[in-house]
Amino acid sequence: MIKKPFLALAGKRRANSSFSKKLVAFCLGLSLVGCANLSAQALFSHYSAALQQPHALVARGEYQQALEQLPDSPDGEILDGMEKGRLALLAGDLEQSKAALEQAELAAKAEQDKAIIRLSKGVDQIGALVTNDNMLTYMPPDYELGFLHLYLMLNYLKENNLQGALVEARRANQVQERAKRLRDSELQNASNTATQNGIDDNVGAVLAKYPPAGKLLGSVQNGYLFYLSALLYEAEGNLNGAFIDYNRALAVEPDNAYIADAAMRVAFRQGRRDELRLLEKKYGQYQRPDRSKGQLVVLNEQGVVNARDFWRLPLWLSDSRGYLEAHTVSLPYYRSYTAAPQKSFSVDGQTVKPVQLANVNGMAQNALSEAMPAMAVRQILRVVAKNEMRKSLTEKDDSGIGNLVVNIFNVLSEQPDTRSWQTLPESTGVYSGFYSSGQHTVNADGQSINVTIESGKTTLVWLSRQGGHVVHWQGILGGI
């Protein structure tokens, strides 16, 4: 005959077992709430880990292999389209590149259209509050949107479609401005949330680990995009547009003599005497080019942008009972945000060196610094929510199994948001000069490129250089 105490103990064990099973189901179910882009990679890993091999391959110049090694939709249509579009361009597949970039553009626009609602109370945030930021739909920072349209511009230029490229130039300015407004709204929302939840000091401690945002204009605005847009406006004969964008590029990279020379050339052609005088005061007297010659412009991309790394930072918080508890938060960061000097090449055997248009590493770091206040607020609130959830769910679990299950789930699901466009170049630069009409040779990293110069016109050469490999394209633009 079984005594009642043993029956009670067995019942208690069954109750604990039942509770633990429900707890496991609860944790898994919780991760599914409102997460439109759920994947095991997003929940229990992070983007830089998934892109490690393709990132290394493109750094070695193995573009086709990098394209083939891209994970299937590692983070939805936006990042997937941008990564594929860039790699397909480098691999020489123009059709795939354009299709992938256009897919990313449409997805990004749709996400921007929903951003206001998401900032106030989006369903994605519900799931992210108990899992991680990777469950949020990715919204590219404005510098990535600029590059998205820049590479669409290059695709159109490869098709000899100047008007299509100019449409993308105008769109690039519009989408970047829209992204900036949305980012400002998100920052204000994050500030209000931090104040309402009494975590301003905690957020401040996290932000102290990061460089301040917006320190240099070159980290905020894209001189590469401005210069290429200006060059295309000039080719079209839109000298007003060209002068504006050359000056915007010059504001970003004020020591770039090639941009200054282009700005002075357009000022001279338009009869902008006051503007030309100011430019000459800073950059020297303008030398009008020989009309029998043509202009060679070489856009030089090199290296691969840094991937986000992550660290775990200590965090002290008071729980609902007023007890001080030690926690850690997982946040992304960049090991460095400098760029190597622009690599030289030769024109007709004479060594020349491009001058920087954009430090993409610096732009990536600045975008992260701008996103960090909102990211830190979400991360701290997530730590609080997970801790309270653990305590609430394990109060009646005498076995300790529930506590173990929740702790394991919390640790595994607390992944840093390392998402960014990781196949972009590390930096870009420009060289320009005037040469006699006819055939000339550009040599970069041992590869010779024959170029044609026509009197009074601009020959544009685009280079992308990674791991000793060179991808190139050339075309002749309009008059100068």
UniProtKB/TrEMBL annotation:
Keywords, sorted A to Z: Coiled coil, TPR repeat
Protein name: Uncharacterized protein
Keyword Coiled coil: yes
UniProt KW Coiled coil keyword: yes
Top-level division of the source organism's lineage: Bacteria
The organism of origin for this protein: Grimontia sedimenti
SUPFAM superfamilies associated with the record: TPR-like (SSF48452)
Coiled-coil ranges (or none): 87-114
TPR repeat feature ranges: 223-256
